[in-house]
Structure formats: structure tokens, C-alpha cells
């Protein structure tokens, strides 16, 4: 068997070194991600440039820190106090997004775990501040949308200039002690029943007013009609009616004398 030439060993070693260097120099940044260069022989994090999606070649002694830069969310449950000191649990979800152009500054100032270092404290502080303005009843029922917007406003103020943007806050659930929750539900039910009762009373009152107006209108109409009916008009109408009955082929009319008003007396009709 022919021995492997000794001259080939240096080339093999060089090849292995090149493969190792290439593997350390090639970086792929995936969809929705951004990269920040960490220069070991320089000033550390490069805050001037954020690398986008795709394939990149870097110096082998440097490294690339890759983080998601698209919109993302975290959910949390917070124990907070209402305005009257009652402890409630608020389940919420926060949508946030790192500033792509300032990803290096964000990591350099807050570290790679910037959600825990920056976002969590801001959200908890904002939730405690906002929830502390409301009663348990308001938290449970009608104030959900207002609370979400106020928490978002508070978080935005706290994170101003921190290279992290909160897009939306969603309060998914407010958990109250069972006794307080039951009391609120009973009160809301009673208020609903009271509103329905008041509606029925208003409807009945309007119907009564309508009937009174109609009755007054009929009475006034009858009064005007009675005042306009003289004896002469009544006699003329009676004569017209008698003529129509006499002309009917299905009637047999016998007229005898006259009544007190001068009108004929009708005795038969078949």
C-alpha cells in the first residue's frame, strides 16, 4: 500500500482550518429577525448597524446576535389593587416590537433579555397605576376598553426613548374574589330588572296618555256634532233614510201617521 505523501498534510490542515473559519463566518438571519454584530476585538456591540434577513459573512472572531424584530406578544397575570384596596388579578397580553434600526442600542443598554429587564417592569407599573383608579365593579363590567387604552398610554410614556414600542394592550380577564363577583352580578341583575320595570311604566304611561287624548278628541267631536244638529237637519236626514228604505226591493214598509218629530213611523220590515 502506497503511503500518503507527507506534503499533503499541510494542505489538509489548511483545508480544515478554512472550513472551521467559514462555518464561524457564515450567518443566516431568518424571516422577521434582525442581527447585531458583537465585535470581540473592537467595542463590543455595533450600535450603528442592524443586519436584515439573509446570508451574511462576518469575521470569524466576531459573532452575530440574532433577535426577532417583528411584532410579538407576551401574556402575564398581575396582582394589583383596586381603588378601595381590594386585590384583583388581571390577565393581559401585550403586543410589542423592537425598533429595527436601534436593535444594537437596545441590546447594548438593556441586554439580550430586554423583555424581562425593560418590558415586564413597565407593564406591571402601568397596570398598578391604572387599575388603582377604578372600583372592582368598574373593572368587572364597563371600563375594560378604557383601562386597556390607559395602560397602553402609561407604558408608552415609561418606554419613551427605550427603543421598544408597545403596539397594543389587551385585558383578557379580571379575576375578583368570589364573594365580590357574586355581589356585583346580583347588583347588575337588579339594575337591569329596574330598568326594564321603568321601561314598562313609561310605556304604560304613554299608552294611557294616548287613550286620554283619543277620548278627549272623540268627546270634542261629539260636542261639535251635537251643537250643529238642529231639528230641521234631523228631520231631513230621517226623510232621506225613509225614502231609501221604501225604495229597497227587499223591504215592505207600512207608514202610518207621523211621530212626534213629524217623521213617518215604520212598522214593518221583512
Automatic annotation (TrEMBL):
Pfam families in UniProt: Band_7
Membrane topology per record: Single-pass membrane protein
CDD domains: SPFH_prohibitin
Source species: Algibacter miyuki
Protein name per its UniProtKB record: Prohibitin family protein
Sorted UniProt keywords: Membrane, Transmembrane, Transmembrane helix
Residue intervals of the Band domain: 24-188
SUPFAM superfamilies: Band 7/SPFH domain
Location of this chain's protein in the cell: Membrane
Principal location class: membrane
